[in-house]
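Researcher: Let's run the pair from yesterday's discussion. Sequence first, then tokens, for each.
Model: Starting with the first of the pair.
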Amino acid sequence: MEYRVFGKTGYKVSALGFGAMNLPGVPLEQARETLNYALDQGINYIDTAAAYKNSEEIIGACISHRRSEYFLATKTAKRDYEGAKEEIERSLSRLQTDYVDLLQIHYVNYPAEMKEIMSEDGAYRAAMELKAQGKIRYIGLTGHRPEMLAKWIDKGDFDQVLFHLSLPQPFAADDLIPSANRWNMGKTAMKPLSGGFVQPVDKALRYPVSQDIHTLISGMVSVQEVDENLRALEAVIEPQEQQELAQLAADMGSHDCRRCNYCSCPLEISIPDVMISSVIRSKFGLLPKGEAFYEKHKEKLTSCADYDPCKEQPLCEPKCPYQLPMQRVIQETASTL
């Protein structure tokens, strides 16, 4: 296992981290076996959140007795002081621990949210108070708009940042990582498979690890998946492969969607899923979860071209901060189904 110094924290984290968001979907004994196996293999970064159903409780029940062996990160999506303080205290109880190594203020995509978080009665104040009490060691920020995250972290208020970095979403490499480096922040990448869509899996995992990050969190729910992830990252990534992966990511990211979720569709089409998978789908095909998505939503996708309110002006596109041709991509994709 490769370990990297996690920015200003000084902690050596495993290059492969454990994302616990999907654990509530499997039996408790399977979750217990998977978490303990991951720790046995040297994975020492565990990521969860208050919003991930009972993920925190699973971690507390399964590995709290091994607390000294892992760096524990959780999240609050509350924006106000009282709500955040209450949620963080509840997380500590669920995780069966006196402290978390990292508390991340979660899923911040709008300037108004950030303003509220950093206000006198905002979530950041709650995090700072609990840090002073020893219940939080470090404070981080997460979101889906790398260029906005770069702006928000550039005052030195945060110790870590969590962001998308994958073959079809490579944008943080240019938009965010340089800003994080200026402040010696911990850099955590997420969603290498973009929610279970992207293949080939080995390249999907090796690309973010080949970039200037500290740890990659991958959602694993079985011993088999832990082994698959470890095997994919076993070989050293040489400079030539790093360049090849970077070029592939540039090609696969040509759709330009950041999954910021500003857009919405009256037909309830999941626009980011279509946009992000559009290029990689045509080149490599998709994992079973991705193919199932298209099968499930085929009728919605093919209805786009005939939806009268969007014929003159698509309702989704004015909401996109990146001015992306979403209607065209959806209709082109629908024509291949």
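Model: Moving on to the second of the pair.
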Amino acid sequence: MRLLFALGRHLPLRVLHFLGDLIGGLAWCFDARRRRLALRNIELCFPERTPREQRRMAYRASQHYYKSLLEYPLIWTGDAGRVHALAVETHGRELIDHALAQGKGLIIAALHLGSFEAAIIPLSAHYPITGMYKPVTNPELDRLSREGRMRFGAKLVAIVKRHGKRAVGSELLRALKRGEIVYALPDRDPPRGQGVFAPYFGINAHSPILSARLIQATGARMLICTGERLPKGRGFIIRLSEPPAGYDSDDLGIAAEALNRGIEACVRACPEQNWWAYERFKRRPFGEYCFYKGTQQLPKPDPRPDTSVPSAS
């Protein structure tokens, strides 16, 4: 692990991306599960595309996925000047200052599209940022990921279960009440009881409500963040944009639907860089069939979502 990181942090970005193209192409051929998942999701989200176009998108997404993995040594442990220089363009930086000036904190919805870490990690050198991360079983990789994400001053909250629930809300709430930035990853299926079903690409998708609850508790603003990967290792274009109206609604369903519309717009603008090999639509409303099962079975009913406001104590 140390050898791989020692090598990866010194290689030019164009070389890392070239290797990502090679490995991603091989994975497309041999990793049947990820290939099926990507194709199924793209078929669901882009039914207007021809089968050939869908396969092309899924193939390119496989290459971009492995580019993301190969970027970690550089972003987490590479020379600080190189890491800051990865963002060759940043659009919407002024929105951060405007939101923080209101004194109620800011939530950045960071998407698994391109490299959000190429944006968030350098940003923590200029703003107080707290983010969530999921510990990994490999202790060396877990250490590298934590230290890499905190290298410029960010704080991390581990997503761990306490009393059967994932407890992160109180730490994020305290950061927002201090008028700081927190970032969350809203394009994933949350655990049971921590989401609501809301449209995403025209499909009812189980969607997180943590950000909406934090906004209800603090009045914080929100921005959506993506790090679009440029060709030939030229770096990234960082885009910060406001989500559609309704993201701060008191109705969790309306808030989740608005955020999903914003996420969908970003994915449609750069679909090949989205992480498609993920069971985004696995959890279904009671009575609907799972999209990914070979043999269709009715899912168990979801419990009512936890709509309480997280405590700051």
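Researcher: Give me one sentence on the second I can quote.
Model: Residues 2-273 form one domain.
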